[in-house]
Amino acid sequence: EVEKIRIKITSLSLTESRITADETIQQLFVECRLNSFLAEETPLSLPKPRSGQRIHYNYSTVINMDKEDNRAEREYLKSILLKADLPADSLKFTVVSDPPEDEQDLECEDIGFAYVSLKDIFQKQRDIIEQDIDVFDSQDASTVIGKLTVTVEALNALRSVHEECKND
C-alpha cells in the first residue's frame, strides 16, 4: 500500500457576485496548497463560467507520503492529528484569475478560497469524494462566490501516520 494523498479538482461553478460581474475576470485556474510542501495548479485556465454553469478541470495530483522519502510531510500530518486546531490543518484551494493574453500587465489575482480539513477527514474516517465545497470571496470571507467540486483521498495516509504516532 503506497501511502499517498490524492487530490482531484473536478469542476467549478460560480454564483452571482462581484466575480461574475467583473469583466476583467475572464479566465480562471485553481491552485491547491498543503502548508508549504505542495502547491499545484490546474495546467489549464478556463473561461469563467456564467452563473449556474460549471467549468471542468478534471485535474488530479498525488502527494506521496511514504516513510522513506517524505519525513517532513509525515511530521506535518502528525502535527495535524496531534495538535489542537492548527490554522494550517487544511488543504487550501485558491481560485485565481488569469489575465488575458493581451493584458499581460495585469497580475494573476486570487479571487476565492476553499478549504478541506485533513483533520476532519481523519475524525470522520471518511475521504471526500466528488464533494462540492464552498468558495469564499477573497475580499470578504463571509461571502460564498461558488462551489468547487473536489476529491481528497487522505484517510489511508492519515491512518498510517496515526499508527506511527501511537508507536513513537
TrEMBL record:
Listed InterPro entries: C2_domain_sf, RPGRIP1_C, RPGRIP1_fam
Protein name: FTM protein
Gene Ontology MF terms: thromboxane A2 receptor binding
GO cellular component entries: photoreceptor connecting cilium
Gene name, Swiss-Prot/TrEMBL: Rpgrip1l
A biological-process GO annotation: retinal rod cell development
Domain spans labelled RPGRIP1 C-terminal: 3-164
UniProt-listed Pfam families: RPGR1_C
